From TrEMBL:
Residues 97-221 form the SusD-like N-terminal domain. It comes from Dyadobacter jiangsuensis. Residues 1-21 form the signal peptide. InterPro entries: SusD-like_N (IPR033985), SusD_RagB_dom (IPR012944), TPR-like_helical_dom_sf (IPR011990). Belongs to the SusD family. One of its GO terms (cellular component) is cell outer membrane. It is found in: Cell outer membrane. This is Putative outer membrane starch-binding protein. Keywords: Cell outer membrane, Membrane, Signal. Residues 292-552 form the RagB/SusD domain. The keyword Nucleotide-binding does not apply. It comes from the Bacteria.
Length: 560
């Protein structure tokens, strides 16, 4: 990662990469103007690799900033915000919801800048640039574009596929493409990308063949539902392909699960043995957009942050707490039990829990963090994942809205669970020994007993929820389910409780158990109504006004 991160300073000095204002008028009507186009820059292997470095960060900034957890977790019900972001929490995301627009904008920034990178490398790469590096850099750009389209099609359904922004100057007929044809396009792309990327990263933090094959496993598992038959049976060919690629990544990539789940989020965790692809953020004072700003909005208060810590109203939902083994439902209004699943403490902070890696400011000094118990009827279970603390906790590499640790986009754990689900396929359960083995490698790492006998979809779904909570994954698991079983997806969402509840430890600090009680006065806005009319996001209103072709009927994408 050091190469990817250190090159930012050089790139910013060489050419502006100001993308924050880019939207549909940039990528649906004309090519972006604010990218590196100087022919003299593409004369060496290092320069060509440097030209794609910002595809690992800045182009994703508007998504990572707030939209990632608003769409990926708030809409999915794994977390909620009491006072802010209520449209996403209550499943009332509209065309004017800020995170809707910023996500759309970010994904098309990725598409547009990836397209431009491909065109520039083809046009400007000098004779001294090796064919291998040209192929690698273009594969990086194609990978980012394909992944952006995966987000676009899963959030908005039919979207326009754009491979060359320059052609839009003379083409006024561009319109949305059908979801099936988008999925076909990005899967075909990723297969070629896997052939063009090396097995070992050319620089720390760069994509590899295994990043692409991991994405193929993810794409094929979802596409099996996209191509389900009228009875909701997933496409077996695509299930087999998901199984094939997941197993290859597990057995051939050299990646490995970290022994302790919590270490995945302890600084410095960047580019560890489990990471298959991460956004490469860097602590970068004075260079807005290459840093990780998300912790500013998730940290519960300024006593553990760097002049920010605006997440005091954000935390775990009642529903997600029920997904953790060791937390059991006792009655309609009370949950209690001793925490067993080690992922809970690494993801959410319960009152009295200690985190020695984070410094907490207290009256008269500081201490290692003990999450407070305020004794009110809406004591939040705060967010811990991706919170690494103050500058003193991270070698000075943190300031307000400026953090340097990376965002996981794909971890090896996903491959183990993907393999198991692909084997389960259209069956009610599976006793396949390898599927159970792979499932249990993720499950037992959390300090839990192995599952024996049969493995069901509900077990796999719950495992994915607790493994990837607050990683922006849960919503896309629900979308994948919705492709072939919308009734079940709605049922999961509509059974959730997203309201206030009180969390009381049995002792403070170092509790051994907690009691959870629904807040008596908070009787409204506890449930949502997910249905076929509101499941997909509406195209942002600003985009529709600037690109009216987005309102035309979708057509299949035909590659020219």
């Amino acid at each position: 990662m050091q190469y990817v991160k250190n090159i930012y300073t050089k790139l910013i000095a060489l050419a502006p990469f100001a993308l924050l204002g880019a939207c549909s008028e940039d990528f649906l009507e004309r090519p972006p103007k604010d990218a590196i186009v100087d022919a003299g820059f593409y004369q060496t292997d290092d320069q060509v690799l440097a030209s794609t470095a910002l595809l690992y960060s800045k182009v994703w900034f508007d998504y990572n900033d707030k939209a990632s957890y608003n769409l990926g977790d708030f809409r999915a019900g794994t977390a909620f915000s009491a006072w802010n972001d209520r449209g996403n929490v209550l499943f009332n995301t509209t065309g004017n919801t800020p995170e809707n627009g910023s996500a759309w904008r970010s994904f098309f920034i990725v598409v547009g800048q990836s397209n431009l990178a491909i065109q520039n490398i083809r046009k400007y790469a000098g004779v001294s640039v090796s064919e291998g590096v040209k192929k690698h850099a273009m594969a990086e750009a194609r990978f980012m574009r394909a992944l952006a389209y995966r987000f676009l099609v899963m959030n908005w359904g039919a979207v326009p596929v754009i491979e060359n922004n320059l052609t839009l100057l003379s083409d006024t007929t561009v319109q949305r493409n059908t979801p099936k044809s988008v999925w076909k396009f990005i899967t075909s792309e990723m297969r070629q990308i896997a052939e063009d990327l090396p097995e070992k990263p050319v620089r720390v933090g760069r994509l590899t063949k295994w990043s692409a094959e991991g994405m193929l496993a993810r794409f094929y598992l979802t596409r099996s539902g996209v191509e389900a038959n009228a009875s909701g049976q997933r496409n077996q060919v695509f299930l087999d392909s998901a199984k094939y690629y997941a197993d290859r990544v597990i057995t051939l990539s050299g990646a490995s699960l970290l022994p302790k789940y919590g270490n995945l989020f302890l600084y410095p965790y960047d580019n560890n043995a489990e990471s298959l692809f991460s956004l490469q953020w860097v602590y970068s004072p004075g260079a807005w957009g290459t840093q990780n700003s998300t912790p500013a909005y998730l940290a519960y208060g300024p006593d553990i942050a760097n002049g920010d810590g605006w997440g005091g109203d954000k935390g775990a939902t009642w529903w997600v707490m029920q997904q953790y083994e060791g937390i059991k439902t006792v009655s309609e209004t009370v949950l209690q039990g001793r925490t067993v699943d080690q992922r809970l403490k690494a993801t959410f902070m319960l009152p009295g829990a200690s985190y020695p890696e984070i410094t907490q400011t207290i009256p008269g000094g500081s201490q290692k963090l003990v999450f407070p118990f305020v004794g009110t009827d809406n004591n939040f279970i705060a967010i811990k994942k991706y919170i690494t603390g103050k500058a003193v906790d991270v070698g000075g590499q943190a300031a307000q809205q400026n953090y340097g640790h990376d965002t996981y986009m794909m971890r090896l754990a996903e491959m183990y669970l993907t393999y198991a689900e692909a084997v389960l396929g259209n069956n009610a359960s599976t006793t396949d020994s390898k599927a159970l083995q792979y499932f249990n490698q993720v499950h037992t790492r959390a300090g839990l007993s192995p599952v024996t006998g049969a493995l069901t979809f509900d077990q796999l779904f719950k495992e994915r929820i607790v493994e990837f909570a607050m990683e922006g994954m849960a919503w896309y698991d629900l979308v994948s389910l919705h492709y072939y079983n919308p009734t079940k997806a709605y049922a999961i969402l509509n059974a959730q409780d997203r309201g206030f509840f009180f969390t009381k430890p049995d002792r403070f600090p170092d509790p051994t158990s907690w009691t959870f009680t629904k807040t008596a006065w908070a009787t409204a806005e506890r449930k949502i109504d997910a249905n076929s009319g509101n499941f997909l996001l509406p195209i942002p209103s600003a985009e529709l006004s600037q690109a009216p072709n987005l309102q035309k009927p979708a057509v299949d994408y035909q590659r020219k």
